[in-house]
């Protein structure tokens, strides 16, 4: 069943900066729908995960090549992303899903929104009735893995604490953020987190600048009525904001500096040399590090902020490695359990057959000599027949189970079926009676607030 | 008697200094409270010393450098208590109290006998001039020490790889800049009053308001001009932050130079024989 899992996707990890805008566009493409996903030949289950940094199609079906081809055609509306697509199957697809859910594949590792986005994607797919057992199990497990990573490692705290640390750092310049004006570059997950925090600090105003204006507007809209004025502008208008801004926070993916020393310098006089705190959470940098040489201008990058998070770089990568190990072991456990189950019908049939033979043979013997035996002796004959069959089958069943858990192939199971003349219905190899049918995978109860980006 | 009291005061300042440094290093927050008590006790003892000396030798005890510094330290301590009471910045005690201690020490190392004031200076108005002058210098001193703290915090924030050094615990730049401005302004007003009262006083005694040949008076005017320019820059040109902190320090250096250096000049109205 795990071998039926197919993933085709594109994300900030696989695509260069220049293509990322295409990903964002693709994620808004109406033709990229669950309806179309259902029509892909060979697909029996499907799910569409799309954020501004990531578009991924998950599916279960056979043959996998055909499914992947169908997925590829769905993404053809943005030809630029096609060379950057990645395709994963089986265990590799499962691992990717676990890593995405755990926010190990995110632009800011540990940001929590992706889990909510995955949950929504799964709910939408379930609502349209194209999720089945494979996705239910895989996504449900992915939520559990994400929860483990969040509770057992410090990875999950990284993004939230980055924003927190950025604010703490600003409070070394400003006595209080109340009434201060914030210029926010970017409209992604981190920008959303930061806006929440700034609103809580009752800042004087927030201007969100983003390459895609609509996205900035959507984020600003979400904070309408929060008591703090939140406006959206495009990146080109940033220069005009430099006179009144007190704090610039950048959380945007950019391939060039969005704010340079030369841009800010002429504004200093009209700013009356008011302090300006520039915090660059973006990698690569989006704010000129030379800004710091200007009077009363301070610039901090992601490493400076990271230091405050009390997890230095070594420690952060250590935490990420621990999280990766959790993902690895979960993938293995999951795969092993599934394979162990794939041999279960064969084992059950084998045991049933043995039982039947023992009972029949004992019956026959008892019919012939039953009159001369006491009731107790009769029971002994039955027990003996059962014991012989059990002993005989013990070794083969144990070996079958170990072999199935150790490797994906079902050669031994097939051979056993063949040798013992067992009729195992092909469908039952995929059937899992314990599947969660209601579309609420385990671990989904305590998801972060739903946030889409 | 005054020596014993002053020694005890110095001891209290010493304890308070260590307490505030302890607090600055982030070892124990209780240290700040204990230090405030020690500082208060020191100020009471120190105040008693000053009062005794004043009653013995006339209205103004500030007739030599040691006495002057001692009075400056006392006012500085009072100003800090005021500052801490209003803005809750005990950590600045680590900058202020050790300086108070150092400035008080010279008064301990000299004969108890004071200068008998020349009859010409037995004037009830003299103490206004002296007290206002020292209050002004205490305000400048406090502004300068805040300026030092500002520069340390600023250097830390400007550094490309600034981490968790102790200066991170200092108040925000914004607050320290505001405090620097307030105390500079207070000092400037007090210094202006000093100059006016001094001129009136001199007119009464010597028949001449201001003598630019008198080094102390010349330096005082230079100080006044320096702080005046600084305040003008703050109001008009938006000077602030590092620039203002550095100028405050410069102004205070000039003021101290005129106070200490020129007091050793034998002749003059502000030192020596008061002829």
Provide the residue-averaged pLDDT of chain A.
Answer: 83
Q: Could you describe the largest sheet of chain B, including whether it forms a barrel?
A: none
Number of strands of chain A: 10
CATH architecture of the largest domain in chain A: 2-Layer Sandwich
Tell me, briefly, the overall form of chain A: elongated
What gap, in angstroms, lies between the N and C termini of chain A? 32 Å
CATH superfamily of the largest domain in chain A: Glutamyl-tRNA reductase, N-terminal domain
Strand content of chain B: under 5%
Element order of chain A: H for helix, E for strand: EHHEEHEHHHHEHEHEHEHEEHHHHH
* Helical residues, percent of chain B: over 70%
Number of domains of chain A: 3
Low-confidence stretches of chain B are: none
For the biggest β-sheet of chain A, the strand order reads 7-6-5-8-9-10
Separation of termini of chain B?
Answer: 31 Å
Helix content of chain A: 40-55%
Number of strands of chain B: 0
Oligomer: heterodimer
Report the largest inter-chain contact: A-B, 21 and 23 residues
Mean pLDDT of chain B: 84
């Amino acid at each position: 069943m795990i071998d039926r899992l197919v993933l085709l996707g594109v994300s900030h990890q696989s695509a260069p900066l220049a293509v990322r805008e295409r990903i964002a566009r693709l994620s808004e493409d109406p033709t990229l729908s669950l309806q179309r996903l259902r029509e892909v030949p060979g697909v029996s289950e499907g799910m569409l995960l799309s954020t501004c940094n990531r578009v991924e199609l998950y599916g279960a079906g056979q043959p996998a090549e055909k499914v992947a081809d169908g997925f590829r055609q769905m993404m053809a509306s943005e030809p630029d992303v096609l060379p950057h697509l990645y395709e994963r199957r089986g265990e590799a697809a499962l691992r990717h899903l676990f890593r995405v859910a755990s926010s190990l594949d995110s632009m800011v590792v540990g940001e929590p929104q992706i889990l909510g986005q995955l949950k929504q994607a799964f709910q939408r797919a379930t609502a349209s009735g194209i999720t089945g057992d494979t996705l239910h199990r895989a996504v449900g497990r992915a939520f559990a893995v994400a929860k483990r990573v969040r509770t057992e490692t410090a990875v999950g705290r990284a993004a939230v604490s980055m924003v927190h640390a950025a604010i703490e750092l600003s409070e070394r310049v400003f006595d209080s953020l109340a009434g201060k004006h914030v210029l926010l570059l970017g409209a992604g997950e981190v920008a959303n987190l930061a806006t929440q925090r700034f609103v809580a600090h009752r800042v004087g105003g927030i201007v969100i600048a983003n390459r895609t204006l609509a996205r900035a507007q959507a984020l600003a809209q979400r904070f309408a009525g929060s008591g703090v004025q939140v406006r959206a502008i495009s990146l080109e208008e940033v220069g005009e904001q430099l006179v009144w801004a007190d704090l610039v926070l950048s959380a945007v993916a950019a391939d060039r500096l969005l704010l340079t020393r030369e841009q800010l310098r002429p504004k200093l006089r009209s700013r009356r040399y008011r302090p300006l705190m520039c915090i660059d959470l973006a990698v690569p940098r989006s704010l000129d590090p030379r800004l710091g040489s200007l009077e009363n201008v301070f610039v901090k990058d992601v490493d400076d902020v990271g230091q405050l998070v009390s997890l230095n770089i070594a420690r952060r990568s250590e935490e990420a490695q621990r999280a990766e190990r959790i993902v690895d072991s979960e993938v293995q456990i999951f795969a092993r359990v599934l394979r162990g189950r794939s041999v279960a019908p064969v084992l059950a049939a084998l045991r049933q057959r043995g039982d039947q033979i023992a009972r029949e043979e004992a019956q026959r013997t008892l019919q012939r000599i039953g009159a001369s035996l006491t009731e107790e002796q009769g029971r002994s004959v039955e027990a003996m027949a059962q014991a012989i069959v059990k002993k005989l089958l013990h070794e083969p069943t144990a070996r079958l189970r170990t072999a199935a858990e150790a490797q994906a192939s079902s050669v031994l199971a097939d051979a056993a079926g063949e040798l013992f003349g067992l009729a195992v219905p092909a469908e039952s190899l995929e059937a899992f009676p314990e599947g969660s049918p209601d579309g609420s995978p385990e671990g989904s109860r305590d998801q972060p607030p739903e946030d889409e980006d | 008697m005054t020596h014993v009291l002053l020694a005890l005061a110095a001891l209290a300042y010493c304890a308070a200094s260590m307490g505030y440094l302890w607090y600055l290093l982030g070892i124990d927050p209780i240290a700040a409270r204990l230090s405030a008590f020690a500082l208060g006790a020191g100020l009471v003892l120190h105040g008693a010393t000053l009062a005794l000396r004043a009653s013995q030798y006339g209205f103004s005890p500030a007739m030599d450098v040691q006495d002057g510094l001692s009075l400056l330290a006392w006012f500085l301590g009072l100003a800090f208590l005021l500052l801490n009471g209003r803005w809750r910045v005990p950590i600045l005690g680590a900058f202020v109290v050790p300086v108070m201690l150092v400035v008080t020490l010279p008064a301990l190392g000299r004969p108890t006998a004071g200068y008998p004031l020349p009859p010409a200076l037995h004037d009830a108005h003299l103490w206004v001039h002296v007290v206002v002058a020292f209050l002004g210098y205490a305000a400048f001193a406090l502004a300068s020490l805040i300026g030092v703290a500002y520069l340390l915090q600023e250097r830390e924030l400007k550094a490309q790889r600034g981490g968790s050094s102790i200066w991170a615990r200092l108040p925000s730049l914004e607050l320290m800049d505001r405090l620097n401005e307030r105390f500079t302004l207070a000092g400037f007003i007090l210094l202006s009053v000093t100059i006016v009262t001094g001129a009136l006083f001199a007119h009464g005694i010597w028949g001449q308001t201001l003598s630019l040949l008198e080094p102390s008076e010349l330096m005082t005017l230079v100080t006044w001009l320096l702080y005046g320019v600084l305040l003008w820059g703050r109001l008009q040109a938006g000077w602030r932050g590092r620039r203002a902190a550095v100028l405050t320090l410069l102004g205070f250096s000039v003021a101290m130079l005129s106070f200490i250096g020129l007091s050793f000049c034998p002749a003059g109205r502000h030192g020596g024989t008061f002829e």
